[in-house]
Amino acid sequence: MSERQPRIPISFEFFPPNTPVGDAKLVDVVRQLGAAQPEFFSVTYGAGGATRDKTLQTVLAIAAAGHSAAPHLSCVGATRETVAQLLSTYRDHGLRRIVALRGDLPSGTAAGGEFRYAADLVRFIRETQAHHFRIEVAAYPEYHPQQRYAARDLAHFVDKVKSGADSAITQFFFNADAYFHFVEQVRALGVTVPIVPGVMPFHNFAKIAQFAARDGIEIPRWVALKMEGFVDDAVSIRAFGLDVVTKMCERLVAGGAPGIHFYTMNQSALTLEIVQRLNG
After folding, report:
1. Which of 76, 110, 122, 236 has the greatest number of CB atoms lying within 10 Å of its CB?
2. Of the candidates 113, 167, 176, 109, which has an alpha carbon nearest to the alpha carbon of residue 138?
């Protein structure tokens, strides 16, 4: 019998629920996904800090369940004072990991706050908190949707890392070659931190296709055509989606990815199935 393969490091992302029903559901989802022994759970932060309090509540609930939790922290609309207060609150609650992002401006907003780029936020965290927090930053294998030039996007990423980031998590993608190419490019620019691929199971193909179109993410034509061809055949959509994402994850890990970060959409079934296949 062959030796069992080492467990692949994984992490999961949630968004703060908006209703009591969502809160109750998330407790169950955390319990189910927690059985997979993730390195941490991350929790998103709404545009302009719109979900700041909910992010904290969700992170504390996850921590209370015995898991490492990482709140997202956005530059948008933030001041040094408000960020310092948040970091102090996170420290007081024993949190040790932050996902530092530039974030998207709320609709109709022109001003972005005192931090222009994520690198500015990372520098501020390092200057005020030393190395208390492990800092994750975002990476874009198919480049940031608002950036016209690839070289400039790579330069921004390098700046974030040099500002003090410990590791990076990518935007979701469905083209493993884009990830490998991105890693190769930034390694050539001197980046040595782990770059963890972000993976989105096909929870809802129509919605994910909408996200992908908005953010400049390529869904391979053959995948899109097969998904659309299934129409309302939920069983076939689920099975095909699981196969596509699992095979991509296997290729990523085989190619040297240091782990997988799953965008769960606050659901557990598909993510757990993929994790079980990878660790089987």
Report:
1. 122
2. 167
- On whether the CB atoms of residues 238 and 201 are closer than 8 A, the answer is no
End-to-end CA distance of the chain: 14
| 273 lies in some domain | yes
Tally of structural domains, the chain:
1
29 is a domain residue: yes
Which band of pLDDT confidence, cut at 50, 70 and 90, is reported for residue 6?
low
H-helix segments, 7-47 = 20-34
Tell me which residue range forms the domain holding 243: 10-279
**CATH number of the domain where residue 44 is located:** 3.20.20.220
Q: What is the DSSP letter of 113?
A: B
Find how far residue 276's CA is from the centre of its chain: 20
d(CA 103, CA 128): 21
Mark whether 228 is an active-site residue: no
Each residue of 229-239: pLDDT tens digit? 998 899 999 99
**Is residue 5 in some structural domain?**
no
User: Is residue 81 within 8 Å of residue 114, measured between CB atoms?
Assistant: no
Q: Is the pLDDT of residue 190 over 60?
A: yes
- Cα–Cα distance for residue pair 127/117, rounded to 1 Å: 16
70 neighbors 98 (Cβ within 8 angstroms): yes
Mapped onto helix, strand or coil, the DSSP state of residue 119 is: helix
Amino acid at the residue 221: R
Whether residue 180 has pLDDT greater than 60: yes
Residue 196 located in a structural domain: yes
Q: What is the pLDDT of residues 88-126, one digit of tens each?
A: 999 999 999 999 998 765 554 445 678 888 999 999 999
Catalytic residue chosen out of the listed positions 3, 13, 142, 184: 13
E-strand stretches of the chain = 10-14, 40-43, 69-74, 97-101, 134-139, 167-172, 195-199, 260-263
